[in-house]
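Morning F.,

Quick status update on the modeling queue. The single chain you submitted on Monday has been processed. Sequence for confirmation:
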Amino acid sequence: MHTTQLDDWQHDHTFGQDKVSRGERRTLWVALLTAVFMVVEVAAGLAYGSMALLADGLHMGSHAVALGIAVAAYVYARRRAGDERFSFGTGKVNALGGYTGALLLALFAVMMAWESVDRFRNPVPIVFNQAIAVAVLGLLVNGISVAVLGVHHDHGHDHGQHGHHGREHHDYEHHDHEHHGHEHHGYEHHDHEHHDHEHRDHEHHDHAQDEHHDHNLRAAYFHVLADALTSLTAIFALLGGKYFGQAWLDPAMGIVGSLLVARWSWGLIRQSSKVLLDHQEPQHVRQRVRAALEVDDDRVVDLHVWSIGPGVRAATIAVVAHEPVTPAEYKARIPENLLHHVTVEVNRCPGVVAATP
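Structure tokens below.
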């Protein structure tokens, strides 16, 4: 029967990426708000001859472009989620969008620092009242944007992973297998998890999406946070300049802000690049997998666990034992909320089992 009916052994690799996420909706709203405010500022600057309004409007335009890239990444990942050319779905498009946003954030930090240093060297007259009004308005808009995106930094735990344990199947391949210099002559099982509850589980989990792993959302969040920080430090510096004559505070706060933005950018680059380069998941995650599988004389001899999307992990595992069980039984030992897509290779050790005294 297996030559004509293969549905029970096959599954897609969308992993919920075909759904409109909360991150996509919120990023779209913030991008639209930023774009509208940019148009209003540029129009007002041209109408009233205000360079402060015009400059801030163009500055906000750079963030509108970055937010537009984030939205485009969400849309592309969703529309291409079922494309078989993507081996594990389009989850990494999210990391690619986050990485691109982080690079733009780094460029923004460099521009901030450059402009601040130039202001130290070549001070310009500041129209304080107008500049303070623009900064307050910008802070208001960006404060709303930060609240809408609402990224929480304490959501980096395993509860963000989705488990999909449905009916599992395996097949057997008989051949000699050499692994890490040890020969294990026997049989080898290659088992792929069947996700018959995949779409329902993702839909249910949408309310608890692990935003810590949504690099695209975090990139958008840091862009509006950087803009809010710029407005806040500008208000502080402008008030100091207006009432205490400390005009140097304006470029000084610009340098402080650029350093903080650069730090955010570097952190996001490191996180998103790990996903793009299939970096192994943290030691504590791999240790949980080993602890679940290494029962009696079962030993994990090769283990690879990596991220394939926001809160989605894949794994390939090689197990050796004197009396191995089926791949399905090994997979059943893995904690339900730990892995998404699992491939288990089982090897029989040719050694003699020690007699029990």
